[in-house]
Specification:
alpha+beta; ten-stranded mixed sheet
Length: 619
């Protein structure tokens, strides 16, 4: 309606000079007809005469600019994002194509307004020149009149140059944004072509239960097994770091996305996904469908505080357990038998700082406990090493553990860099606030910390002792024929005597990508870990330090091979749906919503269903 108004006002201006104008308005209607014969939107019918007078007074440029401000901007709001399923790719392509169509329409409208603005400027120049040519001898002798006419000519020429420049700039901006929209469409088209190519790859086989024989590889015309074109990763939407690992693997030239599909829906209407056609791919966050499992079998022994205490004798502070409102085992000493240091009451199956309570003495601990939960209770380490300004600090120490395909060997790596988690307040044993006593957030890199060169080997040795015991005791189990790995962190605190104290493992630690934190992120750590797990010629381990190889005891290996060779009762990995918590690869604790991150116990059979996004993660 606004564009119609401006164009009809132009007709009024042209008719006032006796000029015949031909053309069509953007919304239809013959702009060369008398105004009374042109269809007018009701909202603007009474305002048209006033607008025409304004244009005759030289306000056409401003009026067109006002109209242009009401036209939508040329913004490319929908950008290409990687799709993980065929339907998502199709939906995205349709949205990008529709966006281009809308941008073309908006661009045409903006260019029409700019063209109208330019036409007004041209008419104003013609008017000023005609007025100057018709200057009478009497006016020509009047200096003020001459200067007035000359000023009008200069002003109209300036407006014309401006309108022409704006028209050119608008056209360039419109073309640029449409080209950008077309680039996004092309990215989507390439993605869909890639998906078509990978789903036509006949070398992939259907994933089977451990108890079932491996599917035969398809053969080519010469009777040889069909070779896999690329390496494939699938984001099964489990959560955790699965999608992140996929994105890093896709940085390699020989990796491609293999699309996912709906696998089944549980009784709570949660959807679970698997690779299209339930194929076995090189990496997926559903371990049953992956040649590389991203969850360790037996990880609960490292994650749960009551279990890991059995693996770290002498490395952890003395730990007491409250179970169902009662002390399990020996209770802590009496209040008058312990030093004046805070006591921590922690829920055993949670890693978030919200589950930690601070009390002054051991007799206060039982009052914190909920009768249905399990808690670990520890007293603060004596003589903690503080920052120079007196604030409490603990170490985030990163660990990579890789279980090899033979179900025997385990390779342990530790990262030479890490983080300090620093309290915002100076530490005193009397201050029981969580801000002072509970350090959670990663505050700064550890490499600049003066004690680090001396502390790193001690943390390295401490982690090695825990992992060795977990392997020797059969708590961590191999996956025959499948590699498994996990990146996790260990929390350490150092005392003034140089001893390091281990508190817990965080099996799904905070990891930052360069897009999240450009200056300080974990991209090199993740790439290095994936280069260790799945080596390639374009990358190395980076700062990952190989610590030691451990071997599972023969009886544990024999049990794993027997499980692989014999039918398993209740295994549901190859079926259309399995109950959450079941796992063909075992030990992958699939859990409920993030609000209640309670790990399930490891299972012997069924499809591996790792943790949901946000659970068992550090705050």
């Amino acid at each position: 309606q606004a564009v119609w108004l401006v164009r009809n006002a132009r007709c009024s201006a042209a008719r006032a000079r006796g000029v015949d104008v031909d053309g069509r308005s953007p919304i239809g209607g013959d702009v060369g007809r008398p105004m009374a014969m042109t269809a007018r939107p009701p909202l603007y019918a009474s305002a048209s005469e006033a607008a025409g007078l304004a244009l005759l007074d030289g306000g056409a440029l401003d009026d067109c600019s006002a109209v242009l401000r009401g036209v939508p901007a040329m913004d490319v709001l929908v950008r290409f994002e990687r799709s993980w399923s065929i339907q998502d790719a199709l939906d995205q392509h349709a949205a990008l194509a529709e966006q281009r169509q809308v941008l073309v329409e908006i661009g045409n409208n903006r260019l029409r307004v700019r063209q109208t603005q330019l036409s007004f400027a041209e008419l104003e120049v013609e008017d000023s020149l005609e007025a100057a040519k018709g200057l009478s001898a009497q006016d020509a002798a009047n200096a003020k009149r001459v200067l007035s006419f000359a000023g009008r000519v200069r002003s109209s020429m300036r407006d014309l140059r401006l309108a022409s420049r704006l028209r050119t700039m608008e056209e360039s901006m419109v073309n640029q944004n449409i080209a950008l929209a077309e680039t996004e469409i092309e990215k989507s088209r390439i993605e869909m072509a890639s998906m078509k190519d990978v789903i036509d790859d006949r070398s992939l086989t259907i994933a089977t239960d451990d108890s079932q024989p491996q599917a035969f590889l398809p053969l080519d015309a010469h009777g040889r097994p069909v070779q896999q074109k690329y390496k494939y990763c699938t984001n099964c939407m489990v959560g955790g770091h699965g999608q992140r690992f996929c994105l890093y693997l896709l940085e390699r030239p020989d990796w491609r996305v293999y699309p996912n599909q709906k696998w089944f829906e549980d009784e709570k209407h949660n959807e679970y996904h698997c690779p299209l056609g339930k194929k076995l791919v090189d990496f997926a966050d559903e371990s049953h469908f992956s040649r590389i499992a991203m969850y360790l079998k037996g990880r609960a022994w490292l994650e749960e505080k009551t279990k890991v205490y059995e693996l770290a004798p002498g490395l952890m502070p003395t730990t007491y357990i409250i179970e169902k409102g009662q002390w399990k085992g020996d209770p802590p000493p009496a209040d008058d038998e312990v030093p004046n240091l805070p006591w921590f009451v922690k829920e055993a199956d949670r890693n978030w700082g919200t589950s930690v309570h601070v009390v002054a003495k051991p007799s206060d601990c039982m009052g914190i406990a909920n009768g249905e939960s399990t808690y670990v209770v520890q007293q603060h380490v004596k003589d903690p090493l503080l920052m120079d300004d007196g604030r409490k600090v603990h170490i985030k120490f990163y660990v990579l553990l890789v279980g090899m395909e033979d179900a025997v060997r385990w390779h342990l790596y530790t990262f030479k860099d890490g983080y300090l988690s620093i309290s915002p307040n100076p530490w005193t044993p009397e201050d029981l606030s969580k801000e002072t006593q509970v350090t959670i957030i990663r505050s700064e890199r550890i490499t600049g910390w003066a004690p680090w060169p001396e502390v790193y080997p001690k943390c390295r040795a401490g982690v090695a002792s825990v992992i060795k015991k977990a392997v020797d005791d059969g708590k961590l189990e191999g996956r025959l024929g499948k590699r498994q790995f996990e990146i996790f962190s260990a929390d350490f605190l150092v005392d003034t005597h140089g001893a390091v104290w281990f508190f817990e493992f965080n099996m799904s630690p905070v990891l930052k990508d360069a897009a999240d934190a450009p200056k300080v992120n974990d991209a090199d750590m993740i790439r290095g870990a994936l280069n260790v797990v799945s080596p390639w010629e374009g990358g190395g381990p980076g700062l990952w330090d190989f610590v030691q190889e451990f071997s599972s005891p023969p009886e544990v290996v024999a049990a794993a091979r027997a499980s692989k060779a014999s039918p398993a009762q209740g295994s549901g990995a190859g079926k259309q749906a399995v109950a959450p918590g079941a796992g063909a690869s075992g030990g992958d604790a699939r859990r409920g919503p993030p609000a209640a991150p309670v790990p399930a116990p490891p299972t012997a059979t069924g499809a591996s269903l790792g943790p949901r996004l946000g659970e068992s993660a550090e705050a």
